[in-house]
Amino acid sequence: AQRVTQPEKLLSVFKGAPVELKCNYSYSGSPELFWYVQYSRQRLQLLLRHISRESIKGFTADLNKGETSFHLKKPFAQEEDSAMYYCALALNSGNTPLVFGKGTRLSVIA
Amino acid sequence: SQTIHQWPATLVQPVGSPLSLECTVEGTSNPNLYWYRQAAGRGLQLLFYSVGIGQISSEVPQNLSASRPQDRQFILSSKKLLLSDSGFYLCAWSGIGPLHFGNGTRLTVT
Prior knowledge:
A: 11 strands, B: mainly beta
């Protein structure tokens, strides 16, 4: 079965420190991976997707098919990065819905 | 631009009472529509998704049902609520691209 695992429920880092939010997936086909973010009092929204290979708000994520991972990274954390982050897997583009991980709450301490 | 509306924002209902949560999308036609539940410590769980009017797929068997009476309207219902139905319910839509979420409904069953 398809599964997304985010092993950390809560991650606390100091401002300016590097951040890595871990995500591993289980899927035998060709996956599409996403990171969604939910800031306090805001709706859940897309942060980035692996197919775009872009950096959003300083965050990047590389799909590693060998390790079945899609870790989210940022070299220098900012206080405004504090939020709930969800890794998600789509089995293909179009109609197939996403499978979400349980989420990691990132807390950046000043 | 496309917008998604979900209501009510919060709801407190007694056990055994019926439920109706509504979601509408504007600015797009024939969207894929989804209902997710976000329970504490359990992440986002896909409940239902629809690729067209009257077409509903259920991902998890439970006390809930969904209907799509119009192209851009998606309704989550229950005939008799259980305590375990408490949670945060999110409606989402997608076209070819990623998911776009509503603001959610906090349901408390007492």
